[in-house]
From TrEMBL:
The lineage of its organism: Bacteria, Pseudomonadati, Bacteroidota, Flavobacteriia, Flavobacteriales. Pathway: Amino-acid biosynthesis; L-tryptophan biosynthesis; L-tryptophan from chorismate: step 4/5. One of its GO terms (biological process) is L-tryptophan biosynthetic process. InterPro entries: Aldolase_TIM, Indole-3-glycerol_P_synth, Indole-3-glycerol_P_synth_dom, RibuloseP-bd_barrel. It holds the Pfam family IGPS. It catalyses: 1-(2-carboxyphenylamino)-1-deoxy-D-ribulose 5-phosphate + H(+) = (1S,2R)-1-C-(indol-3-yl)glycerol 3-phosphate + CO2 + H2O. The gene is trpC. This is Indole-3-glycerol phosphate synthase. The keyword Ligase does not apply. It comes from Mesonia phycicola. Belongs to the TrpC family. Residues 5-256 form the Indole-3-glycerol phosphate synthase domain. PANTHER family: INDOLE-3-GLYCEROL-PHOSPHATE SYNTHASE, TRYPTOPHAN BIOSYNTHESIS PROTEIN. Its EC number is 4.1.1.48. Keywords: Amino-acid biosynthesis, Aromatic amino acid biosynthesis, Decarboxylase, Lyase, Tryptophan biosynthesis.
Length: 263
């Protein structure tokens, strides 16, 4: 069966091939942002009482219209004012309606750690992330070999970017345990079926090495979700739709963060 993930990856391969032909890596390396010193998402998470990483997401394959009316710079500024630890910016265009320009605009408007949220399958995208102002990149175990995870992590670290390694089951975690990543994300959403359950985070928690900052991703809605997951050792919570489906994502992030902090 061909899954949506297969389709996305297929598009990415073509997209990157084309980009590589027209924009050599020297073009990316000449960006004024290429030399900047990154902010640390892992440090922010360790020092935070809420652990919220708030995402900018217009749409997704499972939700064709979350919110297409907002300006990315205003959204991330709202997240910053709300007290989020960092922000995640979708840069995939075909399936999520995001762009590298979104990332760049987000960078221009906040001094918050920014995660480039995309389907990384080539080192070229890691250079792109740095050139457009990211502080961290996402690596999705389901679409990479352990060797790729190692190589991509090494390159990201050379560029001063942190890596969030996303897993969805025990096998993906076990085969990548030797990757020296700071952040490990458990996606509650199965990217092949779109099913969402926080049980995934709960079940994998004890298998994740202590030294990694544990992040629970997707489908999180309420203060209770967060409090529960904290008991399993999670320090970070990646939330998109719950905030983005409102007219004022910053205000809804603030409401949740205030609730968490008052518990
Ligand atoms: O909107 P949600 O359910 O709060 O989820 C946010 C984030 O976890 C989700 O966008 C995500 C997690 N991993 C991904 C990989 C690719 C694209 C998107 C994602």
């Amino acid at each position: 069966m061909i899954t949506i993930l297969d389709t996305i990856v297929k598009h990415k391969i073509t997209e990157i091939q084309l980009k590589k032909e027209f924009f050599p890596t020297s073009y990316l390396e000449s960006s004024v942002l290429f030399e900047r010193t990154c902010f640390s998402l892992s440090k922010n998470l360790k020092n935070s009482t809420s652990g919220i990483i708030a995402e900018h997401k217009r749409r997704s394959p499972s939700k064709p219209n979350i919110n297409q009316n907002l300006y990315v710079n205003e959204v991330v500024l709202g997240y910053k004012k709300a007290g989020a630890c960092g922000s995640s910016v979708l840069t995939d265009n075909s399936f999520f309606g995001g762009s590298l320009e979104d990332l760049q605009l987000a960078r221009a408007s906040v001094n918050l750690p920014l995660l480039r949220k995309d389907f990384t399958i080539d080192e070229y995208q890691i250079l792109e992330a740095k050139a457009h102002g990211a502080d961290a990149i996402l690596l999705i175990a389901a679409i990479l070999t352990p060797q790729q995870v190692l190589n991509f992590t090494k390159l990201a670290h050379q560029l001063g970017l942190e890596v969030l390694l996303e897993v969805h089951n025990e096998e993906e975690l076990q085969v990548n345990l030797n990757a020296p990543v700071q952040l490990i994300g458990v996606n509650n959403r199965n990217l092949k079926t779109f099913e969402v359950s926080t049980e995934i985070s709960k079940n994998l928690a004890e298998k994740i090495p202590e030294e990694m900052v544990k992040i629970s991703e997707s489908g999180l809605k309420s203060v209770n979700d967060i409090i529960e997951l904290r008991e399993f050792g999670y320090r970070g919570f990646l939330i998109g739709e719950t905030f983005m489906k409102t007219d004022n994502p910053g205000a809804s992030a603030k409401k949740l963060i205030d609730e968490i902090e008052s518990k």
